[in-house]
Automatic annotation (TrEMBL):
Keyword Hydrolase: yes
Family annotation (InterPro entries): HIRAN (IPR014905)
SMART domains: HIRAN (SM00910)
The name this protein goes by in its record: HIRAN domain-containing protein
Molecular-function GO term, any one: nucleic acid binding
Source organism of the structure: Thiomicrorhabdus xiamenensis
Keyword hit for Hydrolase: yes
Length: 135
């Protein structure tokens, strides 16, 4: 089953997203790289911003979704998945980037992935609402 998922990128605060923010635009692609030697998550999938001068780590695909992708795809297939930025938001030090990916999944994994990405997006929207309210 072919589907398109939108989900927030994790770890933006800890990596190069802040420094690269002026260069990020909706529709841009990230280089995807698996990180099997990650001590926190063997299924970790990194997202890199690249240009002619080099590349910088932006963040990670959420752990729950990375696990699903690792169950279905080989590391080589994961690194070649179609992706693009679908949403950018910034307020002070808070940033959010949503990534859009098109995947071919069995129906039960597609359903699981759709529900997971919806939950992740709603969770981030709620956090954003709480931050706006407290400002």
């Amino acid at each position: 089953m072919r589907l398109t998922l939108r989900f927030p990128i994790k770890g933006l605060y800890y990596y190069a997203a802040d420094a690269l923010w002026p260069h990020l635009k909706t529709g841009m692609h990230f280089k995807i790289q698996t990180e099997p030697d990650n001590s926190y998550d063997a299924n970790a999938i990194q997202l890199f911003w690249t240009n002619r001068q080099g590349s910088a780590l932006i963040g990670y695909i959420p752990r729950q979704l990375a696990k699903t992708l690792a169950e279905i795809y080989s590391p080589h297939d994961i690194e070649n998945l179609d992706n693009r930025i679908s949403y950018l938001w910034r307020q002070g030090k808070w940033q959010e980037i949503e990534l859009q990916m098109t995947l071919d999944l069995p129906w039960h994994k597609a359903l699981q992935s759709v529900l997971l990405s919806l939950w992740l997006r709603k969770k981030h929207q709620w956090q954003r609402f709480r931050r706006k309210k407290s400002c």
